[in-house]
Structures
1.
Amino acid sequence: MLTLARLACCAAGLAVAALTWSEPAAAQRVIRVGQADTLTGQNLPELIAMANAEKRLGVKFNVVALKSDDVVFQAVINNEIDIGIGDAYKGIDTLKAPVRHFFLLRRVAYFPVVNSETYKTWKDMNGADMAVHARGSATEAMALQMEKANGIKFGQISFVPGSEVRIIAMRRGTMKATLLDLPNTRKLTEEDPKKFIVLPVETQSASDEIFYATTKFIADNKELVQVLSEELLKSLRIVNADPKAPARLRTELGLLKDLPKPLADDITPYFEMAVPGGLFPTDGGGAAAAKADFDFLIAAGRFKGQNADYKIEDFWDLAPLEAALAKVGKN
């Protein structure tokens, strides 16, 4: 059974604060997986994959929730966890750390929400103001990309940190257009679907959450990383084929048993919106994802220069994914 721990960062390192699932048998090998924030139903694709990988490998995955992506990255390079889920690009680039991505789990998903009393199409947005989270953020990069994709120019891109703050401004009418993540997009548009609408947007190709590990861990655990990649491919393809599958498989596999009912009830609605939004790639990312990420990071100001200045092999180990695709098949 997957084990879930809540970890807190302290001066001495990482300390276990609570265990909510069963402890693995002492003789079994435990693979420590870390990600930012606590687990919810939105994490079921990776939890399903890990549960199935456990059966094949005879190991136990211990999923830990850490304070931030930076803490996850530090835990990986300090060997406090084995596999991280998040974004290691900046850490790899800045520290030249021996860490590589190996599987794309989710793409970035921000949606342009507008007040339909003022704007109804992208043409209407030419010269209009767009509110984003912060300078150099993913939302700013998305806004710049949307200008190019729709042949428009925003009058001003304003920086308003916090989705909740932007939602309040949209409700009050002091803000007419903003970029929101999937949960907050749903919250606002469901409150008043006539007033708040989502403008059409192409499938977003930049990465949001990627599996990564040290080069040593990947080299020393080739079978494990490949099998995990295979099961992730299978899980994401199931989710894309049937957004109701995560809720059903949660029950069948005994995952997230203590999930509060409101969060459990939100599982299927979330995936029914996420799947059409293109959040879950079915090919594991690889070279194409890396190139798209370079463009995105440059647009966001996190990387300097041009796409050609960055080498895929400096950020990704493609071998596990290529082996998994050869086994499972390309979609």
Note: The chain has two domains: 3-108+206-328, 110-198.
2.
Amino acid sequence: MSRRTPALIAAAVLLPLALTACSTPEGDEPTGNKAAAKSDGFPYTVTNCGVTTTYKAPPKRVVTMNQHVTEIMLELGLTKSLVGTAYLDDKVLPKYAKDYASVPVIAKEYPSYEQVLASNPDFVYGGYSSAFTAGDGRGREAFKKAGIETRLNTESCAKADTPMETLYEEIREVGRTFGVTDRAEAWIKQAKADNAATAKKLKDLKALPVFVYDSGDKTAFTAGGKGIGNELITRAGGTNIFADLDKSFGDASWENVVARKPEAIVIYDYGATTVAQKKKRLLDDPALKDVPAIKNKRFAVMPLSDAVLGVRVPAAVEKLAAQLHPAATTS
């Protein structure tokens, strides 16, 4: 997995915290890169995670690093702009499979700086702060010196404690950058409607205490109170028992897991360790035998790519709600 060692989490937390975007007024609907540059408010200036960029026209040759930003590009109909991609956490959604197959995969995990340059991009879009690790030669400044603009998914640097709004702004800014504002706004409108529909189903239900098990043996690597993962649990009718962790992900002691008595456990599904293996590790731990979720074998499962700032989130809220509150969501 790409970004979730404690060191990388710390790096994400310490990134410059800047999300404010400014742009020139929008014009007519775009009909292609040339038309977009003339009619959709270009030049467009945006500040992304401390880096301010002015685009005179939409980028034309894009490399994406990390699955959720690749899926944002595909959802916005920007497949033809992609000249390379790297690093899946799991399978892309079936709706994107055909388009994804048309994009060259330049590395299984993170590509080297030289591998990125070989694709001759004018824009690199990273999903996690680790995509732009300066020590690996992929810092945003290095790309800038090579004449390549960059964007980092804003979950890595969001200041406001409103992750769903951060998601909407991420989609909106990417749409503006590529001159497809209409597609971005249509997605946001539908996402808000989907979230409202799920909230209506859960309106009168008591929130269920939830523990997220990502990984870990000596300690539990779990979802903290920052980031979209925590909000996803809340919107799905749960309460994250480690919402007091002041970061998106962090380590928690097993003693605290026991003390906080979760009634359901959400397992993140990714990588070489299977869901079955994770369940076995939890069920076989004698220290956890009195935890309500363990006693009742109450588990929910989420693909890792559902729990990060990307286009899967509204559907992921609904899917998790169906696992935590099946009676309410099927009625």
Note: The chain has two domains: 6-193, 203-330.
3.
Amino acid sequence: MPKEIIFPEKNSFVLGSYDDAPLQPDEIRGPTVATLISQGTELGWADGDAFPIRPGYAAIFRVEEIGPEVTGIRKGDLRFCMGYHRQTQQHPAIYTLPVPEGMAPERALLARLMGVSMTTLMTTRARPGDKVVICGAGPVGILAAHNFAIGGYEVSVVEPDPLRREQVQKSGIAAVHSAMPLDDPDYQGKVALVVDCSGHEAAVLDGCKIVRKMGEVVLVGVPWRQYANLSAHEVLNAVFFNFVSLRSGWEWEIPVRSRDFVWEELLEGYNNAPHDSFGGFERALKWLNAGHVNTEGLVTTVRPDDPSTVYARIRSREIAEPFIAYDWESL
């Protein structure tokens, strides 16, 4: 039987067995090559209360079986999907994307993390050429910085950890600060958008203090726990007197797939959305394939046969690289 990673209870990580479901006419299936670990999210799930959890964020798999309604996909193709940490992937074809020819699976996985902040790029009022500050240079923050840099914004990153500052600079982002440059006249009142990828209250407050009038502070990082002893009044004061637009950066603000209005399909629902999540993933794959993000030395792979050790190493920050992928071909 194929294997998958399961969180059966709080802070417990095991490799269990499962059965593949019958293949549906619109689905494709095949062995997993690699899956991406979303470190903060998965540790947040492990610290939660709802179990069991089958974690996973993104997967690359090789197509072996194709449903009769699927067209344009061949056996042997590598496909990107939002999949569990498991030995096989099975998804409706519409919820998969082709991996560009020659791209390493571990690199292609990063398109999923780029998608987290891609929604903010699609919805912000800031325009190319504006100053954008990213708070936090973890996996999501590094790629958020590149999303906006590729989009033509003047991007800076704030990160207190020296290793992470070094990593984001190595990836190609030059302007990096150890703290929010509140007293720098080049920044104070001139930042159009702060994207918080840290989930830290103090970073959000600093963002509200530095943005220009009517500027945006978008919360992309999940506030898994309290980090600072700040009052709500401090944030409210900064938001009110600086005319700040403080909002969620929930990536699912846009639909997973756009669907046009069709009269005959009216009751099945439609959104007429100009942007969707998979459009963002597709864009990210193109940018990664074009070499816009330098990931050399920033990606590592681990075996999935001992997940307890993997997550313990992540929690203790023994793994230096920001991007970690399970290598399912190593089983």
Note: The chain has a mean pLDDT of 96.
